[in-house]
Amino acid sequence: MQTRCYRCGWSYAIKQDEIIAALQALEAGGGVHYDARCPRCRHINKLSIEMLRRAAPRPVTGKASEEPEAAEGPSSES
Ligand SMILES: [Zn+2]
Predict the structure, then answer these.
(1) How far is ligand 1, taken at its centre, from the CA of residue 61, in Å?
(2) Which pLDDT belongs to residue 57?
(3) Which of 7, 28, 34, 73 is 20 to 30 A from 50, comparing alpha carbons?
(4) Mean per-residue pLDDT over the chain, rounded
C-alpha cells in the first residue's frame, strides 16, 4: 500500500508482507494502529487497522468474499 508521511509529505510504499505482519501483531496485541516509520524523516505515522485490512492482499480476518474457486481450465500438465 501507498501511504504518505504526515510530517514531511513523503509518499512511500508498505510491502504486503509488512501489512500482513502488522495485522497479525495488532490483532494479537489488541492494537488499532500500526506505526509505519517514514523512510525519509523517521516520523512515525499511525495507520489504522482498517486501512491495513483494506490494503491486505487477502482478508486476514472477517469475511472471505473474494475467495478464488479452483478453476477447471484446460491443463497442459501431463
Ligand atoms: Zn516523513
Answers:
(1) 30
(2) 78
(3) 7
(4) 86
In a domain, residue 51? The reply is: yes
Q: How far is the CA of 58 from the centre of ligand 1 (A)?
A: 28
Is 14 a domain residue?
yes
Domains identified in the chain, total number: 1
Per-residue pLDDT at 23 exceeds 60:
yes
Task: Tell me the CA–centroid distance for residue 1 and ligand 1, in Å.
Answer: 16
Q: Which residues surround ligand 1, an ion (CB under 5 A)?
A: 5, 7-8, 10, 38, 40-41, 43
Rounded to the nearest angstrom, the distance between the alpha carbon of 44 and the centre of ligand 1 is 8
Structural domain harbouring 17: 2-55
What is the whole-number distance in angstroms between the Cα of residue 12 and the centre of ligand 1? 9
Q: Is the pLDDT of residue 61 over 70?
A: no
**Which letter, b or e, does each residue of 34-45 get, where b requires 16 or more Cβ atoms within 10 Å of its Cβ?**
bebebeeeeeeb
**Residue 24 falls within a domain, yes or no?**
yes
Q: What is the pTM of this model?
A: 0.68
Residue 77, domain member (yes or no): no
